[in-house]
Input
Amino acid sequence: MLAEEVLVHNLKASISAKQEMIAKVNQVAVFGASVREVVNRYKNGGRIYIAGNGGSAADAQHLAAEFVSKLARDRSPLPAEALTVDSSVLTAIGNDYGYDKVFSRQIQGKMTSRDIFLGITTSGNSSNILLALDTCREIGVPSIVFTGYEGGKAKEMADYCIVASGETTAAIQEVHIVLAHSLCECVEREIFKIQD
Output
């Protein structure tokens, strides 16, 4: 397959995944409920903590940056942190307790009942995200998960599970970034009363 053909094929797959997501009315509703929960947390002095692995780790950092800096309009910063960025913390926990606990241990040490957690896992079965979701339940922190395929084990563990459409990891992750940008935009609009 020529490079041009690969690009056209992948663009069509991305468009198809997004069209399928629009048709998932129940998932769009879960997204709306998760936005309202994040807004409520911010209004009560909380913050969002975000985690993922690989490309999803980069998405976690990307989204945290949008909250702290801005998405599209100048406004005050919103507190957000990606649990994927501190190499000393990650390697200490990984070495001392195992990679499965790199997020859950940070949740135990950093989060309060005012906060909210967002896990990003394409398969829905990343063991460190599952343990993070379990820890959230234990300490009374609400959780959101962006996942794909059938939702994996995370589907039953998160308070708000949004299962992105897509036949491939790439297409699912492209829907995840639309979800992330939309989440930030909706929170900005509500917190700062931004009008079109």
